[in-house]
């Protein structure tokens, strides 16, 4: 009855609305909490988020062409790439001005390298041209078209000009197209020729093999985690050291150890031949292929599966199993209907951990993967450190990141992320 | 000496021993026979072997020696899931990933019962514990008392003849615990099931049980109905463990006509009922319940031995008065008196004389 | 009194300072190299002698040459160059030069002339493949084979690598198109001087890959130079390509049953590059060291410790014996006339243009 008469907000003792004074009290608390995490937040921002943002941006950034060849880019706007003819004198004159400035600033080879990713040969074209154009007088030495063609008739190649025109804008989707085996043609997006398609195949392989590795980790890790969780803590701690042992050995050493084990003249093959199970000339191929990668990576990632499973299993009350049995369930039913569902959060956490680590792995696949056992990350590493095509590496990395987030989201939708426990 | 077997022997322990480490016995030579429909409580301090006995009966522990029989057949080699015994656990052990209805349905499912029959039984079991509206919830959404009811319903839903309960009310607050004690006993009697109940709470044991087995040190010290246990403890452990108890130590002077004259250590003489003593000269521990001690001379019987006592402390407890005395050198001698209008309130420092009926004073083992 | 003396001192120091610093050389220098035996040969041949001449100098080593290009780019972007002199292979040097990451060097002005006065540009000759690059050594990528696994007729031609009937078993090849594509075309019947012309056409690429296809199942692909000697030593492969210095050490220093094939070996260069934009004092130090470390005697000395040929023509006659084994080093040099009868000359310019394109095709072929 009284509620109907009171329409205004509830007031605090000093007359301010209760909601407002509550918000004020909470804001102080939040501010204090924020101050406490501020150093970490700043650290994460600087060392993690900014580099990721930078990487994401690199995958579309393409300032170099318009910055290095500003006049050429403008002059090329009027040129019809489908005309079948190389651009006219004014474009070449603009190029001469741009190249002379670029050669003096030593940036002409940079833009050459950039365009060479799209059209092989441009790198040396620019390098050679820079050397010559440096000595030209851009006011008086015209006409330039002839001079360029005389220097290298590739300057008359329409393909070169099409490449320059296509990659004039400051932003490009070229790296992303490249990452999924497409390319920018004159008439829009084209599929790359069959003998250049690699990334889709590698993405699929990376995911399938990571799934297999995750599955192998579950199958091998579950019984271990179960034993650890059900042993007296003294023995469990001792066994835990064995589980953690791989963490204390260098990754390279462990991977090399697998080489020694698995290679054709290795320990396993020698033993099998000695036992007469395998003929000497039919030794098993267990390394430099997918099998080798799966074995080595399963071993390396197993602790990441066991630890979350173990910590979840430790919290499962042993009386659940007893209760199930007292209610008439056989050992298997009690396990499958009661224990297993309660251990799923551990499997989920371990699987997410192992899967995400697996798809980003590159050292182990590089060393034991041969040709069929390498991952997309090996290509990313290649483009970062060898080909220096950081734009492409960034695009590949961005796709990988996006797919991981997508999988995470799907997992959340299907299983629920609150069902993931790390301990 | 074999336990009697017959129609009334439903659960039997015969010469059962249990050892975990091969060096010490946790259960020493246990013999116990329970008729159908009995509510029996195993009571004892922790480590006394009562829970081990329950677990052996449930099948989660195997007896090192001896035979456990259910309905006349030995169940030593029958796995727990085939024993058909309902069990309520200390922490309820409700399956957290299942709803209440699924929890109850579980024992029926593993017995391959049809869906409609299952639903019917689950509904009835939930109604029985007045939780009919909670079938769709998860255990974590229920209070401790509600979870307790569900655990009970789950142990009963498949209609076992024997139900074991392992300190089922331990986690509840006092008020709720008392309420549940009555509910469980009523339910057990209504359904006519046989219950073995384990607790370390003697009040619980006394209020709920048909018979109580007091465990200590792996041995049943006394197996008797609650009133016998309280009023006629068989030895000083039971006397101490059940209810409040005053003890005085001394030596038996003579036993005559069912009365033992005991000379207390400070030289005074008292009359007692000999329980664990047989001949003069034996050391004995005399046990008297606080509410059986009388200090109003008018109410004492003619010729009864009395002892001098000094009032040390008077505690007002509402329904009763609790007075602490110094008696025969014992500073912890307690008497309890009803808060009646004519009741005297003793003052500290007051010198009084106390006495009791000889049958209320039991001369037990020292 | 005291005060005025001090202020005079401060004033004179301040006045002299700019002039003094221009001549000043930094007394710390970070060198980047490959580690292992190669870096050791550099230490012995010219870093230690240079340190004796410059007692105050401190040299810091960074064994990062394998990732030099990527790290150099990262440093340049961050604007914090911590390296002073970087050892790099010629193709990496060209890439860094194109990227503007390293200094152009006027070889005749910076480097020492030969003892007979020949200017460095002539003494190094065509080995000066880039304006930014000072070559130190000539190495070659060539094949080694297990002498005990090839029967009585050891391989004599690079095309024996493609002959699975005569030499069954696994082969180790580097996991990149460079060299492998050339060898494949050569053994498919393409004349040596036409290899790059053929490889410039899509059909030529297909042809090379088709040839490689014939042995693909039997190839173990390596990425680090140490792998092939190990694979040979383990008997995992019958033959495999690697750097000649690695094979020399497996044969001469470790006594492994390995033979070496001097046919169509691919010549390559390794040398110094100077990061662009060094402060004046550091640059002065580096140039001083560079002049010393690449003179005729120093390059000849290096060959005492490792079987790579000196990049100067004038050093060749000075090559002596191995510092510890005492064997004559000249016959183990890729530059020795007896070893260089049939040599594959690697085209830097062509690969700089086509590396990314061919690499994509090569990787796609590998993944198939």
TrEMBL record, chain A:
InterPro entries: MetI-like, MetI-like_sf. Gene3D superfamilies: MetI-like. CDD domains: TM_PBP2. This is ABC transporter permease. The chain crosses the membrane at residues 33-53, 202-229, 235-253, 291-310, 344-363, 388-411. It comes from Ruegeria marisrubri. It holds the Pfam family BPD_transp_1. One of its GO terms (biological process) is transmembrane transport. Its main location: membrane. It is a multi-pass membrane protein.
Automatic annotation (TrEMBL), chain B:
Its EC number is 7.6.2.11. It catalyses: ATP + H2O + polyamine-[polyamine-binding protein]Side 1 = ADP + phosphate + polyamineSide 2 + [polyamine-binding protein]Side 1. PROSITE patterns: ABC_TRANSPORTER_1 (PS00211), ABC_TRANSPORTER_2 (PS50893). The keyword Magnesium does not apply. The keyword Coiled coil does not apply. It is an enzyme of class 7 (translocase). GO terms for molecular function: ABC-type polyamine transporter activity; ATP binding; ATP hydrolysis activity. It comes from the Bacteria. The complex is composed of two ATP-binding proteins (PotA), two transmembrane proteins (PotB and PotC) and a solute-binding protein (PotD). This is Spermidine/putrescine import ATP-binding protein PotA. The lineage of its organism: Bacteria, Pseudomonadati, Pseudomonadota, Alphaproteobacteria, Rhodobacterales. The gene is potA.
Automatic annotation (TrEMBL), chain C:
Residues 1-22 form the signal peptide. Keywords: Signal. SUPFAM superfamilies: Periplasmic binding protein-like II (SSF53850). The keyword Signal applies. This is Spermidine/putrescine ABC transporter substrate-binding protein. It comes from Ruegeria marisrubri.
